[in-house]
Amino acid sequence: MKTLVKMEDHIELLFPGVDISLVNALRRIAISEINTIHINEIEIIENTTSLKDEFLAHRLSLIPLRVKNIPCKCEDKCVGCNIELVLDMICNQTKLDVMSNHFNKNIFMKDILICQIKKGQSIKLRAKIVEGDTNTNYKSSPVSFAGFRKTEEGTKFFLQTTGTYSAKEILERSLDKLKKQINIIENSIK
Asked: I need a labelling partner for 183 at 20 to 30 A (CA). Which of 56, 119, 122, 156 fits?
C-alpha cells in the first residue's frame, strides 16, 4: 500500500496487486459499518419561525458531531451516553443567525448555521444523541465520499470524511472490521 494523499479529512491510497473486490469491501465497510453518533429524538418545544418543525428536526439531524468530545460513564464505553442537547433562542434584534454553537454543549464539528430568525421569533428544543451505523440510520455515516478506480499501478482508493473521525481513524476501523469478517469466514471453513 502506498499513501498518495493524507490529510485529516481526506486520504488517497494506492493498492498495487490487491484484488479490486477487497478494496471495494473496505470502501463499503467505511461507508456503512463504522459506528458514530448523530442527533435523534428531537423534541421541538417552541418554534415560532417560518420553518416547519420537521424541516428543522431534519436539518439538525444531519449536522456532524465530534465523537472525541462525548464523555461516557458506561462500563462498555458507549458513545453518546445520556447526552441531551438544548437550544433556547429568542431574537430581540432585527434578525439572528441560530448557529450550532448556541446549543448547551459544544460537540459540533464547526459553527454551522441552523436557521435565521427574525425579531420576536423563538426556537426552543431538546435533542438526544444516539450511536449507530448506517445499517440502523443513514445519518450515521462518517464518510461523505469513498471510491476507488483501477489504474495501471493498482487500485486507487479515495476516502473523504464528514469530520466525525479522521480519515486515518475510519480507515483503521474499516480494516479491523474487514479482518474480523475474513477471520469469521476462515474459521467457518475449517
From this structure: 156
